[in-house]
């Protein structure tokens, strides 16, 4: 992890939760008190974000000590002890909610991502994420996807060309859009084009697109598209892919399956912090 990014996210989160301190903790707890605490899984899932949780407490108390019991990527059961730590009691209480919020969300993403990956185990297709992330938390969301066993699509608008429907309309066609972008980008960057039917697929092929996205197509149309493309470009399936249809999508022969719901519609994994 790049801790320049990590620390900025955490600092913003702490500012949101502690704009003028913690009136409850500061009134009750002696500033020199030290406590032992642990993170405990309250549900089954895949853990992600323990380094982030640790960093929350380190920012509040540089002397805090940690013992990671079950590292990121571990499949945990309800009741498992994930992390133990010792530090200033005020710091632990002040960082509790921020640390849990981030770790729970990250673990929820890793858990659902892993479930999707397991459903197509043995198929050649790879699960990837999208930019449908929570604003300000993309770095953590993308990390959690990798912990869950999938891969990342482009991180942001700056690092990959994806010509979508509105680009095509504005440029008055796929050919124009591809030609214009090719004049502007380095030779090292691939060009992906979003398509909705066989006509658009042929236009993308004629324009020598590197990756062709099949957007919201039926299973039968995807299978036909894979035949038309015939390995002349990588094929990405996208749009309304869920646990019920992902295996059918993978069996069409696509190379990549992008799924927005692994980041935009996850349930956080239930984790609690308990003093010992």
Instruction: Flag low-confidence runs.
Output: none
What is the overall shape? Answer: elongated
* Total separate domains: 2
Structural class: alpha/beta
Q: Specify the oligomeric state.
A: single chain
Beta-strand percent range: 15-25%
Termini Cα gap = 30 Å
| Distinct helical segment count | 11
Approximate helicity band: 40-55%
Query: What is the CATH class of the largest domain?
Result: Alpha Beta
The total of beta strands comes to 12
Mean model confidence by pLDDT = 97
- Main sheet properties: 6 strands, parallel
Rounded to an integer in angstroms, the radius of gyration calculated over CA atoms is 22 Å
Order of helices and strands: HHEEHEEEHEHEHHEHEHEHEHE
Which strand order does the major sheet show?
6-11-10-9-8-7
Question: What do these coordinates show?
Answer:
With 276 residues, the chain is α/β, with parallel strands linked by helices. The chain folds into two domains: 3-117 and 267-275, Aldehyde Oxidoreductase, domain 3 (Alpha-Beta Complex); 121-264, Alpha-Beta Barrel (TIM Barrel). Helix content is 43%, strand content 19%. The strands form three sheets. It has a six-stranded parallel β-sheet. It has a four-stranded antiparallel β-sheet with strand order 3-5-1-12, covered by helices on one side.
């Amino acid at each position: 992890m790049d801790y320049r990014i990590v620390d900025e996210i955490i600092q913003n989160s702490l500012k949101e939760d502690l704009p003028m301190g913690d009136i409850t903790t500061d009134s009750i707890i002696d500033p020199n008190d030290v406590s032992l605490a642990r993170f405990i899984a309250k549900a089954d899932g895949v853990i992600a974000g323990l380094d982030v949780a640790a960093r929350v407490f380190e920012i509040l108390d540089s002397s805090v000590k940690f013992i990671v019991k079950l590292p990121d990527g571990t499949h945990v059961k309800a009741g498992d002890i994930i992390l133990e730590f010792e530090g200033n009691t005020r710091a632990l209480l002040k960082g509790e909610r921020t640390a849990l919020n981030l770790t729970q969300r990250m673990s929820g993403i890793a858990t659902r991502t892993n479930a999707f990956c397991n459903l197509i185990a043995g198929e050649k297709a790879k699960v990837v994420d999208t930019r449908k992330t929570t604003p300000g938390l993309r770095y953590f969301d993308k990390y959690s996807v990798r912990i869950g066993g999938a891969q990342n699509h482009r991180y942001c608008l700056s690092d990959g060309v994806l010509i979508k429907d509105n680009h095509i309309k504005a440029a008055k066609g796929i050919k124009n859009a591809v030609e214009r972008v090719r004049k502007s980008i380095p030779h090292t960057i691939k060009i992906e084009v979003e398509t909705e039917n066989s006509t658009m697929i042929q236009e993308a092929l004629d324009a020598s697109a590197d990756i062709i996205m099949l957007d919201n197509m039926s299973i039968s149309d995807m299978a036909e598209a894979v035949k038309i493309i015939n390995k002349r470009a990588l094929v990405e399936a996208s749009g309304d892919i869920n646990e019920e249809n992902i295996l059918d999508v993978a069996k069409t022969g696509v190379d990549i399956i992008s799924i927005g719901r692994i980041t935009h519609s996850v349930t956080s994994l239930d984790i609690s912090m308990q003093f010992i």
